[in-house]
Amino acid sequence: MNTGSFPPPKQRGLIVHGLILLVLATVVVVGFFQLSSADVGPGFLTWLLVSLVAFAPVPFFAYRIFALYRANYEIDRDSLAIHWGLRVEDIPLSDIEWMRPAEDLTHPLNLPAIPLPGAILGLRRHPDLGVVEFIASDARKLLLIATAKRVFVISPDNPAGLAQTFARATELGSLAPTEAKSVYPSFIVAQAWESGLARYLWLSALFLNIGLFVWASLIIPSTPLVALAAQASGGVLQSVPSSQLMIFPVASLLLAVAGWIAGLYFYRWDRERTLAFIVWGSGALSSLLFLLAVLFIVTTPV
To answer: What are phi and psi of 234, to 5 degrees?
Structure first.
């Protein structure tokens, strides 16, 4: 036996999170188009709030889909590695005190808050085990791994197979000593923040988007009409309600958030960090271009 790969159940989790993401994206798109045609007033503010509230959890659920899709538990004669998106826990086999199914506990485990299929994640305190960290997808296949640090709860699709592989690996002994490693998504953010260039690009995109939202909000009440498009015949500028300017800050924000997340993904590897800076730079540049587009529209005579 050299290695063993024991992925968690993924199908139900991917379907549930995909449906949630689809509903949220639909609400955002509908709200986006309603904003483009609504007049300034309560209806406009309502659709703006609905769009922003629906968009806020989109990156969260998108990351959960990515994390579950890439999730895996890998074991060899030296260590047990837990991969869950940007979360990595590498546990030397010598640090594992015991491994057993959750059904063997005298006191049942309390699941983390809002345990969706495919994302049973978080910390809970157990009366016998102390702090327990869930990195699992299926509550029906929970397997406990006890270390001196804490107890981890995982959910391989074949819990018995992983436990048997662990027993055989322990009997064979380690080939080479390994060190325990814990990597959290927040560590990637903190590591990137230490780069002056990354901070500059992040803050530039942030302030450009804030300025764009504030500027559009000030223009809309004082300017009833703007020239947003040209008609098909004769190239005559078409006047539209100024509320449609809100399209620009919303689109700019969507691109900026997507670019920030994509940059963090590439920043994990040294060889890909140049690409991460390119993505973040493109996000800041796109925000600037949206700002210039609003300036051009506002200064164009109706």
So the answer is: 80, -5
